[in-house]
Fold each of these.
Amino acid sequence: MSLENNAILNIYSIGIVLIIYFHAFKLFEKDSMSDKLYMSMLYSTIFMLIVDILSRFDGNTSIIYIVLNRIGNFLIFLMNPVLPSLWLAYVHFQIFHDERKTKKLFYPLCFINVINIITLIFSQFFGWFYYIDSDNIYHRGPLFWIPAFITIMLMLVAFTIIIINRRNLGKKSFFSLVFFAIPPFVCIILQIKFYGLSLVLNGVVLSLLVLFINIQNHSMYTDYLTGVNNRKKLDAFLKEKINMSTAEKSFSAILIDINNFKYINDTYGHDTGDNALETAAKLLKGCLKTSDFIARYGGDEFCIVLDISSKSDLEVLVYRIKNCLEKHNKSGSYPYQLEFSMGYAVYDYQSHKTAADFLKHIDTLMYEDKQAYKNKLRVNI
């Protein structure tokens, strides 16, 4: 690929990344590890696209071309494992949502990058990875495939983690994470087969774009703390379910409130209160099918929407939630006990209730359940 063609393609790709960056800068949370890793991938991609242009300054023996060519090729090989390392860390956090565990992953990834740097420095003397002849022309060395091998292996590890843990991901997140590896992987194969072709970074830009579209969509409709859907998504989803309902096929909803949540917050602190909300969300998700819908209704309340048209089937699920809650409390993993009050009902198609009316109905049922819980406590005292 000529310098001119490479420059045009890379400048176009840089423009796309900059557009993503400016949108992401407004959208992302500064303290979110996921967002930090994504932004780091953007920075690295822009830098490598610029460096890739510099590595095309060959075939001309002027001092400027020689210097730029040598700097460009050195930095390209230096940065090779950086992007896949950031990607692996990003995938790990997206799946496990554990900042501490993801930070531990940085150690082996840093080790890989340090080994790459040391090997690259030595290769300058022996031409293992590449060498530039007296005419300022780049040539592959006998071990040119090692950086590509490291990149592919890191991407394959990330891909394997995604596939193994696919049940922990939503459909859109799963698609975006799986798709990310495909364009760069195809471009790597093409680059190895066709000498002089440089498309890998352009493939990464396409992957970053698809990933950003999913992140933006996800963040608009996701509760940041618990990771479940937010109230905005719930309102839209309920309206859709009501419009699709018929006399033969309806749906159900459960409104859930955490009892004594204020006591947990006041006694153990707001961090523990946040932990209680996250735990409640995980517990509820564990009782549901992947196709079931769960949202944070507000504060310490959650709403579940289900494709259940029978009250008896709905009661079976409510019993399952209570059973899961009982098992959780018996585990003694936390200093507090989680207790739920629940209001639930099958949507009556003949009633023609709006989404707001239906939510008000199950909210009333939940309040009655909460009052019964409080009365029970008074009797026990």
Amino acid sequence: MDKNKNLPNKCEISTFTASDSTKLRLGFFASEGEAKATILLINGHREFLEKYTEFIEEFQARGFNVYSYDHRGQGLSDRKLEDPVKSHNPNFGMLVSDIDEIITGKIKPDKLEHPFYIVAHSLGAHLALRYMHDYPDVVDRTILLSPFTGFHDRSVFYVVFVKLFFAMMNLFGFGNEFAVGQAKNQQMIDHENAFLKLTHDKDRYQFSQDAIEDNSNLFIGGVTYGGAAETVKSLDELNENGYIEKIKTSVLCLLSEDEKIVSNDVTVALIKKMPNAEVKFIANARHEIYRETDEIRDQMWQKIDQFFSINPIL
């Protein structure tokens, strides 16, 4: 039992060992009362369980069992480089495989007798799309929050240049090094700029910073050239002709109206190609809808409750 004060109620933390021996920090958060469904919550880049405490507790109150985990290379899961601060995931296929291994090795053995859903944010939503493509008919419904399908406000020239630059840096053996401009320590994080892009709620923003203050091992810095090159490669795969159309799962995509991190235009174009998906915008929201102000989050929960067909929590 994890005694971390920053984690949700009814919390069980364990270690899940992936097929390549990578140890993943896995959390199970039991529903309040009899479970109506089970959710796998997939977080984003540089995130960790503590950041989703309030969100998880709200799902628990609605009658959901929730599983969530720290991605390999971040949070308290294994980090492969000698410098643990580097964000280094040079194979997104392993991140998708981790999702499947957790579902088949942990969640499904619990003998679910109710629906199974995915809720995923940003990079997690990107991975959820890849998972639903590679492993159809596993998930009953999925909610994507601000999915990372492309970079915000970047020209074609910029994207092409970045691809070539990252590929060249990897070719010359710099794959494990911080990419240019990336934060190498906590002191390099521009919290004022981050806050203005992520949320309007200072207290909710500060909650995750307090968790890092309590456990500095949760912190991870900027991405490596190897991680950056793989990110671009995975984005290209997601945007290949015919790829997204194969996803038949019922999907609700919630986009932030005031988005400054990912590309809403790319996401809308992709979601339109999916046979059972819809897009809804959350007015005034920034990238991290789930930790926005109460007024903005009320919009989010209204749409989530409707999609999952549950009575709202008053």
Amino acid sequence: MTLAYPRRNELARTPTPLQYLERASQNWGRGHRLWVKRDDLTGCTLSGNKVRKLEFITAYAQDNGYDTLITCGGLQSNHCRATAFAGARLGLQVHLLLRGERPADADGNLLLDEIAGATVSCYPPRRFFSEIDQLFNHWQQHYAERGRQALAIPTGGSDGIGVWGYIRACEELQDDFSAAGIEQAHLVTATGSGGTQAGLTLGVALHKLPATVWGVNVCDDEQYFLDKTAADAADWHARYPRATMPDFKPRVLDGYVGDGYGIAGDHIFELIAELGRLEGLVLDPVYTGKAFAGMLAEIQQGRFSGCRDIVFLHTGGIFGVFPQRNHFNW
């Protein structure tokens, strides 16, 4: 299907490869072929799924007179780190509103935020959750008083602009499926702010890709993500009414959050280490580790029976491994 995409900045190294996991398929596939779409390879400091969204968001900012980007997330937010480097690359100022107490020594994504020159403001979780809208308004007003114009980007870049990133990615998946001989697949992704899942679900429908999209939630619950992905899709259609709104059916694999967002059990760290040894593939404990574990559990339960191919979208997150290094037991 031919879509009228808005302008984007070419920030990501795409297309990313689709990699067959031969040994993982033998170990865990139960007759399925397991594949990974390597969106962890979208670049170096701009790695991961967030860059696809930022290609469209940063172009929107430039085209509408914004010179500053404000966004939010946890101390180890992949999205915030990607925004910091996207802004640096494009000459846009970036201000990050981060949830948590600033540590004595910056590590992982937080260290990279600082290297990229982003302004960082940290807030205790209770204040962050209760006042985030006011904090965005405060800082937008702060920049306006100084003659600047700041764009507020929601958590994860997940809105009607950002979903274009994974609508477009479904064109790549069409080529991937053709080259790999995939006639039908289940497509599994971690979902933490909903935008990647919304974009994939829209993209699969718009491009008639023979796939069923599943989000493994790493926070909140199934109903939250059913509502959030639907809201992002509605926002997309409201912003771009000439685009056809397809039949939108989000699906969530719930039950794998564990003790909470960013908190992984020992079995997740064991899986990360095992997959690293087995396939040379590194997951992270916040997003992809939980999602991959959830996918394997669903395979065991027969969720995907009748379909040979399962494609896991690797959304990145490697920099989040280092601050949790002490949880690996060697």
Amino acid sequence: MSLLGIVLWIVIGIIVGAIAKAIYPGNQGGGILSALILGIVGSFVGGTLATLITTGSLSLVSAGFNILGIILAVVGALIAIFIWQQVSKRA
């Protein structure tokens, strides 16, 4: 992967994480780094769910660099926020 590809992953990860934090009600806290991690996790959650729904097999894949991929990543990030809040409540 080229340096441009890595920078693109980082920028899109931050954007996806920020969108998910803006959509999800309440305060999630954190800054740019947490938005980046949330965007990357969301990309894998969304891509994996899309693969599971379309093929019926469970494999860890990320969402692509297109509009559908970004939407899937945001949905995955929202799911990740929900799961994180549920787990952190119990601890």
